[in-house]
Amino acid sequence: MAKAKSSPTKALGIDIGGSGMKAAPVDLATGEFLKKRLRIATPQPATPQAMVATIEELVDHFGWTGPIGCAFPGVVRSNVIETAANLDPSWVGVNAAKLFGDATNCKVTMANDADVAGIAEMAFGAGKGHKGVVMMVTLGTGIGTAMFTNGTLVPNTELGHLMMDGVEAEDVASARAREDGDLSWAEWAPKLDSYLDEIHRLLWPELFIIGGGVSAKFEKYAPLLSVPTKVVPAELKNHAGIVGAAMLCG
Ligand code: BGC
After folding, report:
1. Which of 65, 120, 145, 171 sits at 20 to 30 Å (Cα–Cα) from 163?
2. 1 lies in some domain
3. According to DSSP H, which parts of 80-151 are helical?
4. Residue 132 phi/psi, 5° resolution?
5. Domain range for residue 138?
6. 111 in the same domain as 18
7. Ligand 1 centroid distance, CA of 5 (Å)
8. What's 145-168 look like in SS3?
9. pTM summary value
10. Confidence of residue 222 (pLDDT cuts 50, 70, 90)
11. Which backbone phi and psi does 153 adopt, to 5 degrees?
């Protein structure tokens, strides 16, 4: 009788962002990094060709030959990139798992960045054991969302593109919008609050988990939020994308 194939115990997680590409090998049972993470700036323009070279650099750095899970900042269905709002538009239609897999000789699995960050938070972080509807909101170059009901993900929710007063929410309430507009935390908090309120009005989650770099500064804006939903910071902080990406291989 053929031996059942066992699932991997570790995988390389790669988190692709608009400004940086970050990777670390991850223990899939604990969510811990097995080596110090490496970040390389995202090449500009962020074309598939340019970025595949960075993926090779990350994989070579760790001498990695095992499975790779990769988080992408756009809609991903069956490993194919469907949108790339903050990267080069030539990504649309590319099977990124095949592109990266052929370049590295590793088995690659792709998913949306906010979705995988949410998967990691639900397994090891602020969403652990949470029943009901949980909404992870990642605030970075764009706004990513991941919605869970009883721990099950509805993939590719793109609520960062909700329109608020005729403008996309991610152009108003993302971390990038705060930096570009040189906004203080007190100036930015009401914008984030209105955005969370809009999601509350439409989807009624029981918990918001705030991810991205600003999750580490939660105390600066959390007291200024009035949305009638519990809001907590991501516990894995900026590591959630790498951990969740690796978990795609489990
Ligand atoms: C993209 C999402 C992504 C988010 C965060 C948005 O612009 O459309 O797919 O999750 O940015 O990177």
Report:
1. 120
2. no
3. 96-104, 113-124
4. 80, -170
5. 129-234
6. yes
7. 34
8. EEEEECCEEECCCCHHHCEECCEE
9. 0.96
10. very high
11. -80, 140
Q: What is the pLDDT of residues 107-153, one digit of tens each?
A: 999 999 999 999 999 999 999 999 999 999 999 989 999 999 999 99
Question: Does the residue 58 lie in any domain?
Answer: yes
User: With a 6 A CB cut-off, is 86 part of the ligand 1 pocket?
Assistant: yes
Spatial separation of the C-alpha atoms in residues 179 and 176, rounded to whole Å = 5
Question: 15: Cβ below 6 Å to ligand 1?
Answer: no
DSSP at 22: E
Q: Pick from 19, 14, 81, 1: which is nearest to 243 by CA?
A: 14
- Cβ–ligand 1 contact at 113 (below 6 Å): yes
- Asked whether the predicted pLDDT for residue 1 surpasses 80, the reply is no
Among protein residues, the one with the nearest Cα to ligand 1's atom 12 is 73
Q: Is 244 in the pocket of ligand 1 (CB under 6 A)?
A: no
The reported pLDDT for the residue numbered 4 is: 58
Q: Give residue 4 CA to ligand 1 midpoint distance, Å.
A: 37
Residue 180 and residue 209 in one domain: yes
- Looking at the chain, the whole-number percentage of residues with pLDDT higher than 70 is 98
Best of 15, 16, 112 for a ligand 1 pocket test (most atoms within 8 Å of beta carbon): 112
What is the position in ligand 1's atom list of the atom closest to the CA of 83?
Answer: 8
Residue 85 Cβ < 6 Å to ligand 1: yes
Is the same domain home to 38 and 101? yes
Q: Would you tell me how many other CB atoms lie within 10 Å of the CB of residue 37?
A: 17
CA atoms of 123 and 117, how far apart (whole Å): 10
Check residue 225 and report its DSSP letter: -
Ligand 1 neighbour 112 (Cβ under 6 A) = yes
